[in-house]
């Protein structure tokens, strides 16, 4: 990771992340299993796959929670926080473009909403239900499918966001999926749900 990318990672992590995950309070009760706060788990060992070349993600599939979404590109807002996908009826995930592309060495970061206001559930509504070993597929612009296995799922207070764990350098291709979670506060949520995954294979 370049020094510029590392600075962008740190800035984004220290700023408010996904503050726009607002929705209907009545829906909070349907968050599903795994939505409670958890302590940091030890990662599940997976056999590392050979890193891929750079190619921007265009679609994300998570079969265990029926996610099949286009992926847009996200940068930084003027305040240094990560931009989030717009709140629209046809919600989609967004790849943080200052992170590696999925399959490159390092942590590739993809964000999504848990709820999208009057439109209801967001694309990452059931992210907290994922378990170790579940599969995530990132389809890339060059036609490659980067396949990841989940190693850990964590729900943490936004005030205690684990910047180093999420954005810090790693020596293999990894993926981070991030959304809001936990109790509601006004139009937002108090926690973040963070999914950690490692590349296991690649195909077409």
From TrEMBL:
The question of whether Metal-binding is a record keyword is answered with no
Q: Which Pfam families match?
A: Sortase
Question: What InterPro entries does the record tag this protein with?
Answer: Sortase, Sortase_dom-sf, Sortase_F
**Per the record, which residues fall in region Disordered?**
25-50
Q: Where is the composition biased (Low complexity)?
A: 30-39
Q: Which domain of life is it from?
A: Bacteria
- What is the name attached to this protein's record? Peptidase C60 sortase A and B
Species assigned in the record: Streptomyces violaceusniger (strain Tu 4113)
The upper taxonomy is: Bacteria, Bacillati, Actinomycetota, Actinomycetes, Kitasatosporales
